[in-house]
Amino acid sequence: MSPLEAAQAALAAEHAAVYGYGVVGARLGGDRQAEAAAAHAAHRARRDALGRTVRDLGGTPAAAAAAYALPFPVADGDAAVRLAAELEERVAAVYADLVRASGGAARRDAAGALREAAVRAVRWRGSGVAFPGLAERS
Fold first, then answer.
1. DSSP code of 73?
2. Which of 83, 82, 104, 91 is nearest to 46 (CA)?
3. Which of 102, 92, 76, 81 is nearest to 14 (CA)?
4. pLDDT tens digits for 51-61?
5. What is the pLDDT of residues 69-111, one digit of tens each?
6. What are phi and psi of 62, to 5 degrees?
7. What pLDDT digit, counting tens, does each position of 10-46 carry?
8. Hey, how many other C-beta atoms are within 10 angstroms of the C-beta on 80?
9. At a CB cut-off of 8 Å and minimum separation 6, what does 13 contact?
10. How far apart, in whole angstroms, are the C-alpha atoms of residue 1 and residue 99?
């Protein structure tokens, strides 16, 4: 996978995460809602940065879809927490690909994004995996 392809895939995952956190935030209250709002803001910032990265690599940033299919119904807070963990695991997987495809500062940025997604996934799920972003690729 080229750096541009990996950046486009990460951008697409960030678009989906931004959408997904809109659903998550609507189903949570209190501290968890604040946590969802912070994650939503983080994914918006990463999405915007990836748009610049794609342009810097000579591409046209992929646009967000009008809506995204959720992996399961999200009717309550428990399902919203599961969705948040799933979103973070999916984002970690594409950042693992971006780490493999890039070098230098871009690789450090992708590794930082992977780490942030893995930490958020652990917070939402309550447990983690040994190599975040790689389990999904096996």
1. -
2. 91
3. 92
4. 999 999 999 99
5. 999 999 999 999 999 999 999 999 999 999 999 999 999 999 9
6. -65, 135
7. 999 999 999 999 999 999 999 999 999 999 999 999 9
8. 23
9. 90, 91, 93, 94
10. 11
Q: Per-residue b/e over 17-39, b at no fewer than 16 CB within 10 Å?
A: bbbbbebbbebbeeebbebbeeb
Contacts of 63 (CB under 8 A, 6+ apart): 15
Give how far the C-alpha of residue 13 lies from the chain's centroid of Cα atoms, to the nearest Å: 6
Distance of alpha carbon 1 from alpha carbon 19, whole angstroms: 26
Structural tokens at position 113: 């994004």
Check if the beta carbon of residue 107 is closer than 8 Å to that of residue 10: no
Q: Which two tokens stand for residue 91?
A: 């984002």
Q: Which residue has the tokens 């956190």?
A: 21
- The Cα 90–Cα 113 span in angstroms is 12
Cα 11 vs. chain centroid, distance in angstroms? 9
Q: Which residue has the tokens 């995204």?
A: 68
CB of 87 within 8 A of CB of 134?
Answer: no
